[in-house]
């Protein structure tokens, strides 16, 4: 079975570099420097979330510096438009958000809709998602991804929520196309402090862990 999903180039990028750094912080002193620190450790795709205060200027700054940036925790059409106007490469939602999907499609921007159950996965497909974010991934474990690939063989799944250097390779081995690296790589306090060498170290450790046998 194959799925006629939009934005194959977006999925090809995920397959080649299967880590998205997801940043939730009380403040970001320099979004461009943060993304550069992540890239220095091998993570070149960053998602800045709307749960971060005043995230839109950070999105603009990171995009202007040439980084591959997505907007996450997009809950409304208005947020989607703000992020797209800022120049993001993709949108991510925590759950099924039809109005956000509609804005993304109108703009030609890839969207990764959040889902958990097989029914929600089917609904995400109906809404034209480019990939499906399974959240919370850790609560159900890597084996859940293998189970989902039974009825949905070849479906691009992204593991999000509780993914760390110790389990990320297992999610990929069980069928995830990519994983989201959250507090394991970008702890809010370290981001807020602007400790970019530590961010680079954590990113490098995470990417290195992906290469181990699952």
UniProtKB/TrEMBL annotation:
<protein>
    <submittedName>
        <fullName>2-dehydro-3-deoxyphosphogluconate aldolase/4-hydroxy-2-oxoglutarate aldolase</fullName>
    </submittedName>
</protein>
<comment type="subunit">
    <text>Homotrimer.</text>
</comment>
<keyword id="KW-0456">Lyase</keyword>
<comment type="similarity">
    <text>Belongs to the KHG/KDPG aldolase family.</text>
</comment>
<dbReference type="GO" id="GO:0016829">
    <property type="term" value="F:lyase activity"/>
</dbReference>
<dbReference type="InterPro" id="IPR013785">
    <property type="entry name" value="Aldolase_TIM"/>
</dbReference>
<dbReference type="Pfam" id="PF01081">
    <property type="entry name" value="Aldolase"/>
</dbReference>
<dbReference type="InterPro" id="IPR000887">
    <property type="entry name" value="Aldlse_KDPG_KHG"/>
</dbReference>
<keyword id="KW-0119">Carbohydrate metabolism</keyword>
<comment type="pathway">
    <text>Carbohydrate acid metabolism.</text>
</comment>
